[in-house]
Amino acid sequence: MDALLLVFLTPLAGALVLALIGHRAYARDLNVVFSLGTFLAAAALTVRIISDGPLFALDKQFFIDPLNVFLVTLTAFVGLSTSIFSRPYMRVEQDHGKMTPLRMRLYFSMYQLFSFTMLVALMTNNMGILWVAMEAATLTTVLLVSIYRTPASLEAAWKYFILCGVGIAQALFGTILLYMAADRVIGDSADALLWTNLEVVKMQLDPTIMSLAFIFLLLGYGTKVGLVPVHNWLPDAHAEGPTPISAVLSGLLLNVALYAVIRCKVLTDGALHSPFAGNLMIGFGLLSVVAAAFFLSRQKDVKRMFAYSSIEHMGLMTFAFGMGGPIANFAGLLHMTVHSLVKSAIFFAVGHAAQQAGTQIMEDIKGLIKVTPSVGWGLMLGSLAILGMPPFGVFASEFLILTTAMRELPWATPFLLLALGVAFAAIFSRVQEMVFGQTALKPLAHPPALLPVFVHLGLALMLGLYIPPYLDVWYRQAARLIGG
Amino acid sequence: MDNLITQLINLFAAVILMLAFAMLSQRRILTLIHLFTLQGLTVVASTVAVAYVTHQHHLYYSAALTLALKCFLIPYLLHRLINRLNVRWDIETLINIPTIMLIGIVLVVFSFNLALPIAKLSASIARGTLGIAIACFLLSFMMMITRAKAVPQVIGFLSMENALFFAATSATYGMPMVVELGIALDVLVGVLILGVFMFQIREQFDSLDISHLEKLKED
Amino acid sequence: MNLSGLLSQFLAIMAALLLAPLLTGWVNQWRAWLQNRSGPGLLQPYRMLRKLFIKESVVAESASPLFRMAPYVAFGCMLLSCAIIPTLSTDLPLSPAADAIALVGLFAMARVFMALAAMDIGTAFGSLGARREMLIGFLAEPALLSVLFTASLISQSTALTEIVENLAHRDFVLYPSLAFAGIAFCLVSFAENARVPVDNPTTHLELTMIHEALILEYSGRHLALIEWAISLKLFAYSCIGLALFFPWGIAEAQAPVALILAIPAMLFKLAIGGFLLALIETLCAKMRIFRVPEFLATAFLMAVIGMLTHFLLGS
Question: A101: how many CB neighbours lie within 10 A of its CB?
Fold first, then answer.
């Protein structure tokens, strides 16, 4: 329980401290230290879970089970590596005069606060607190998206705020309906929104209310997952905010939102005894995969392109969880992990590349491999990984999803293959031009932090070749928990 | 007596819906803020009525919280905002108002239909109010869509929150207190951030017209 | 049909005929006072009617018999509608003759005849007024019907007397649907009675007038009848409003004491209603005619929502 509290108290303390001293030179290192603390606490927590099993804290308001423990660890880990990446990145931005001391303070404290909200969202047992934390995650990032105060970034942040605000309001409505359903079974107590309690009585929840609730919850949290057609905020926010924020948005926030959807799906499935929730998710997922692939091929801005790739992959995961069953759930969880790792690695590489070129337009970024070979290779390998090339982990998870789809939903497979093909052609051709070719780029003033890029890619590679036994057990337990 | 108060809650629900329509058709920004305040007051009143009938004491607290937030603090902030930004213009809607109203009726019919099966199940005192809450939610949503200026969009957002709060109190006698505190905090922080935003937007564009914010489009 | 029924019917008609000009005078007097004028006095409408009845009626050369007939039709329609609205008592022998829907029909008939008569002469103002009047009518009628439907949904009957009986003599219940209907009804009444936000009853400014343009060609006893009909219409609308939304004090069948008490109750309610009408007219500015459809669309919408609320809240 101590480790559990430590996991989210560390970033909260970090946010307070960095709000005061974030403009100092050592704040960059302090940010890493706090993130490291969070990660260590999360690791300790994981060890505890392996030995002791699920646990509760703070009057059952917080809990850890196989499903969220691996997401907590993943979140803490990507949070740590992103903080390492943002050290040199933010220094360059400061040199370019894009970041004033005040903005640095805002950036660091909001970064920690964002980690805090995501960890709370993951670990809370209360569906209401889950909503509050998700909304808070929007609020903390919205000022980060507009931190450069350019017209485009303001526009992106406004869109982000309004669209996610509306979306999340729908989720609140869904939560109210959920409470209404629970109220009839559990009674009017403060514990009626605790997920563990709801899980016990899910068979008795009223099907009519639950189906309506799930529609609202899926639309609401789906907005934050970036499901088409409520995805419009995502590419803008990714493209206009600082790159570390793009990395955590893609790598973590979308996961957390999808996690919320999965939790709701478990309850709805129990109440409805029908594949209604799954079918909705399959529909939205498939639409997202296909639509994102085609949008992707028309992008000129590199960060926008990878943002659309995130929509595509989130769609794929939603599709997988929608199908349900042990294999599809396993594949979905695996895909969640590797996508987080690889996509954040790509954004790290892209961030450095864009800083070198001084632009995010892909036509103006050329020959990275000649100037900084490590950035070039990082981008190339990352792109290959995200496109599902063996032996990276994405291949394994996509392969599992596709084979399950062929067996269970044969009609959907051609669409998936088509979308993956289009995305492959689009990303690969663009990235090839960016990595190779003649160049006039200059190296960066500060050495880029490429350790996170290669650590992430290495982990993704490992997961493609070999899944450690304890990780395998986790995934299986979590997949069973999701059921379906 | 309780019966009368239940009817009173229904009446408040009707008033909230009426105010939602009034906001939808309102052209003046100052009146819009007044209407929003009035809607907040009605929500508070209905919360108190629910609390009285059901003897749910925590609802009194959330009513007080809402009163402070929705009827005093946020309207005050909005007033300050429009004074500081000097934006008292009439709002042009993107669609003409009778059309908006007709779409509004369709939305109301839709949400009543949506809520009907649930209303039949619900044992709560004012079971019909859920449909009205959904209707207000959708109407505020439409208000956000049809307004091209920043401040009305924000008011639409807040009135959407009003509808949700009303749904929570009337359909389920309020959410657990922790959750309500969290929601109130989020709303407050959200309004503050939006206020900051509006200054930034005006600094950049010399206007609060959201139509300036249409550069980021799919090519 | 019995004696007390006949008596209450007779009383209702006499009250309408005699009190309608007084109501108009009362509203005008308050308007004057609220605008810091001394006002023409309460009895001015009676004096005007007397004057007009004495005067010779001049009719245009091109007028057809329709032109002469129209004032009588309008007056008859208004009188009949006043007779079937439960102003004092719900025991009206004439009421089976026409229910709420037919009442709207009666108003419409008067309007159609007035519009035809206005066009009959062939002057520009007449046609203009007729066109505007029909525009308002065509938007206001559905709204008025929806208001009446909302009320009839509650009492499961379209007969006005039964609606009022239901509303007045049952346990006190709050009907949210009636709140919507009430607002819609107020808006419709302003439009139908040519009051300020829609039309100015005292204007003679050609471009803005609606109702006055219709009756520009009338004089003498024809004009007197029309003026009386207009007063009756205002009286009828006020009484519908009072009967639907404030039905207390209206007597039931076989209740002579209540019938006697109903007269002061009605006078009291009408006095307040008239004052409020004058107040609203003073506070509002007349809107442009292009805004009128919007105004009436709002009324219609309110009435429809009233009906929907009735179905949803079901009380």
Answer: 12
Q: Is A401 left (phi over 0), alpha (psi -120 to 50) or beta?
A: alpha
Q: Is A103 inside any structural domain?
A: no
A101 pLDDT above the threshold of 70? yes
Q: Which segments of A358-372 does DSSP mark as H helices, in order?
A: 368-371
What are the Cα distances from residue B174, in Å, to A207, B181, B188? 21, 11, 19
Q: Do chains A and B touch (3 or more CB pairs under 8 A)?
A: yes
A310: in domain:
yes
Strand partners, B102: none
Alpha helix segments (H runs only) across C156-291: 160-169, 176-192, 211-214, 220-245, 256-283
Among residues 294-353 of chain A, which lie with CB inside 8 Å of chain B?
295, 298-300
Judged by CB atoms closer than 8 Å, whether chains meet at B4 and C301 is answered as: no
Q: Is C53 exposed, middle or buried (0-12, 13-18, 19+ CB in 10 A)?
A: middle
The pLDDT score that the predictor gives to residue B219 is 47
- Residue B185, classified by CB atoms within 10 Å of its CB into exposed (0-12), middle (13-18) or buried (19+), is middle
Across the interface, whether the CB atoms of C179 and B129 are under 8 A apart is answered: no
Helices within chain C (DSSP H only)? 3-34, 44-54, 65-84, 100-121, 124-155, 160-169, 176-192, 211-214, 220-245, 256-283, 292-313
Domain annotation covers residue A257:
no
Residue C96 DSSP one-character state: G
- A136-165 pLDDT, tens digit per residue, is 998 999 888 988 888 888 889 988 988 898
CA dihedral A45, A51, A53, A57 (to 10 degrees): -40
The yes-or-no verdict on residue A400 having pLDDT over 90 is yes
Confirm whether A482 is domain-assigned: yes
Hunting for tokens 């929500």 — which residue is that?
Answer: B43
State pLDDT tens for residues A11-37. 999 999 988 888 888 888 999 999 999
Q: Do A180 and B141 touch (CB under 8 A)?
A: no
Secondary structure class of A126 (helix, strand, coil): strand
Instruction: Provide the residue range defining the domain that includes A475.
Output: 275-484
Give me the pLDDT at residue C216, please: 84
Distance CA B173, CA B47 (A): 8
Dihedral angle of Cα B104, B108, B111, B113, to the nearest 10 degrees:
-130
pLDDT in tens, B78-119: 888 888 877 766 666 777 777 888 888 899 889 888 888 877
pLDDT, tens digit, 9 for 90 and up, residues A431-442: 998 888 777 777
pLDDT at A449: 79
Conformational region of residue A59, where left means phi above 0, alpha means psi within -120 to 50, and beta covers everything else: left
A149 CB neighbours in chain B (<8 A) are 200, 203-204
- CB contacts of B101 in chain C (<8 Å) are 297-298, 301
List B90's β-bridge partners, or say none.
B28
Residue C219, classified by CB atoms within 10 Å of its CB into exposed (0-12), middle (13-18) or buried (19+), is: middle
B11 reaches C (C-beta below 8 A): yes
pLDDT tens per residue across span B111-145: 888 888 877 776 666 667 888 899 999 999 888 88
Which value does ipTM take for this structure?
A: 0.91
Q: Phi first, then psi: give them for residue A124, nearest 5 degrees.
A: -70, 150
How many domains does the structure of chain A reveal?
Answer: 1
Nearest to C53 by CA among C71, C26, C70: C71
pTM of the entire predicted model: 0.87
Distance CA C211, CA A172 (A): 52
Q: For A143, which of B153, B183, B193 is closest by C-beta distance?
A: B193
- Over residues B152-181, the mean pLDDT reads 86
Q: Which residue has the higher pLDDT, A55 or A342?
A: A342
Residues 222 through 241 of chain A touching chain B, CB cutoff 8 Å: 236, 239-240
